[in-house]
Amino acid sequence: MTETGHAHGQAIEQAWRDLVATARRSAADGLVVGTSGNVSVRVGELVLVTPSGVPYDRLTPEDTVAVDLDGHQVIGRLKPTSELPMHLEVYRDADAGAVVHTHAVHATAVSTLVPELPLIHYMAADFGGPVRVAPYAMYGTGALADNMARALRDRTGCLLQNHGTVTYADTLDKAYDRTAQLEWMCRLWLTASAVPGHTPTLLSRQQVRDVEEQLKGYGQRS
């Protein structure tokens, strides 16, 4: 094996470890139940994905599953997640390094109530604005992937009606953080909306745009 090939192999091994750890974390954090939800990571021209119907705590390095950007399986014996079309659609349309899909309770509840998550908190800025709800379509279908793609236009996350959430980012950690943030915002809105006799104060689109600019300088400089 060439030095380049060895480095690529190591990158795949590390990406798989990170993917499995994130999938397990989504279950531990209550964002998925059983084998629901799925995670993917891009390594060059390959997309590593969680397999279909396999408990995350049983996954080992030997269970690595990877497809090319056309969906052809190139690594692994296990069948890729049924939501593969949705993951691949994100990689085709956006400069994404990782995608996280969950069935988070509060986010899924919100997806049944409104066409987009109201601007209850300024962290909507991290998603590019109000988080939209993609119309319902059966899981694993091209229709669902198409609906999701429209809801994600100029956004980094969306809700799937009567289904769950999708977020993406350049790294797996960031994609997961967005998923957790989205679930928290949905819980916040549901909590505030449930107070009898009161209507939650919402932010304006301009206030969120101002935060978008502020977030560009957030955190530590490398």
Automatic annotation (TrEMBL):
SUPFAM superfamilies: AraD/HMP-PK domain-like. Transmembrane segments: none annotated. The keyword Lyase applies. Pfam families: Aldolase_II (PF00596). Residues 17-190 form the Class II aldolase/adducin N-terminal domain. The keyword RNA-binding does not apply. Keywords: Lyase, Metal-binding. SMART domains: Aldolase_II. This is Class II aldolase/adducin family protein. It comes from Streptomyces niveus (Streptomyces spheroides).
